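Hello,

Our lab assistant flagged a job as stuck in the queue for most of the afternoon. It eventually completed. Since we weren't sure the result was trustworthy after the delay, we are filing this so someone can double-check. Below is the sequence as submitted and the structure that was eventually returned. Let us know if re-running is recommended.
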Amino acid sequence: MKNYCVKDLMVPISEYATVYEHATLYESVLALEKSQEQFQQSRYAHRAILVLDKNKKVIGRLSQMDFLRALEPRDDNLDQIRKFKQFGFSRKAVALQQEEYLKNSPPILDVYSKAAKLKVTDLMQRPTEGEYVDEKTSIDMALHQLTTGSNLSLLVSRGADIVGVLRLADVFAAVFHAMKDSESKPIDGATR
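-- returned structure --
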């Protein structure tokens, strides 16, 4: 893997799903769908959208989890139930309380229209320092950065610009194939 560098495995911004900061959640879903249809069928589908400012600079990322969280009801009672975990309640106990409370909430289908109009800037995650990697970084170092930060992807930089996305799925595939190749090579004339 030492021969690979980040730019060899990254997905260029031009092939990634993007929307501008004024876009709605619905417009983001459409952009993700379009990007997945156009992306090479041999590679993994995109699971996030990059949010761009008016100068086409990446200012945030909207993941599938961010989409789903936008559909969750927002009110003080539910927020209080979610805080039960910090008082030692198990996940199961908190989940049961949430389910009981949500029985009286409108069904998810009724919330779609409201959620579709939300602005991406209200839902996106702004990248943190540990989510950037230079395009010339070795895959070994990028792998370390992915696992240490428990990241599903890293934004690939060239100087001050974001030029692509390094996805965990692509790094995993490269590592898996390298391992497979190394294990299938004969040792001293013997086959495995």
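-- support follow-up --
The delay was a queue issue, not a problem with the job. The result is valid. The chain has a mean pLDDT of 84. The chain is about 45% helix and 15% strand.
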